[in-house]
Amino acid sequence: MAMLFLVRHGHAAAGFEGHHDPGLDMLGRQHADATARHLAPLGPLAIYSSPLARARETAMPLAERWAVEALIEPRVSEIPSPTSDLTARAQWLRQAMQGRWRDLPPDLNEWRDALIQCLLDIREDAVVFCHYVAINVAVGAAIGDDRLVAFRPDYGSVTRIVNVDGRLRVIELGREASTTVG
Length: 182
Prior knowledge:
Distance between the termini: 38 Å
CATH architecture: 3-Layer(aba) Sandwich
Radius of gyration: 15 Å
CATH class: Alpha Beta
Shape: globular
Order of helices and strands: EHEHEHHEHEE
Strand content: 15-25%
Strand order of the largest sheet: 3-2-4-1-5-6
Largest sheet: 6 strands, mixed
Number of helices: 5
CATH topology: Rossmann fold
Number of strands: 6
Structural class: alpha/beta
């Protein structure tokens, strides 16, 4: 049984509508430091991170404390957008987040399945720095919820999930907050 600590990245310097790959702003760096302090007594554990800057930067303080290298894992990245136009992708995501996976195109369901398989493939206790929708994928799979948004993880929050015999199970949802896409 592997315990997975899914961490939502800290507050980004720009929203989904403002930049393709923003890093953290000052508040986001505070989230990263607070998360590192919270998780430090548990490790060192393996650290996985989305390749996006905001996730990598959130992982950095914990990786430094534990003197480990964060492994970059593309399968826990942000949900793929059907467009690179920033305004259009924000509008698309706002609409998609109101729906269910079964209503989305096959390529997005393939991304979802790959993310779930990635988490199932981790056989050791680990911290995974990722994104709002990615955490919702894991929680939805664990509780059998087909909605894109099963709960609203706050910046820097930690959701605990276990892999038991090839199935994800929620141990504890992270702190929730209201999130807007923009």
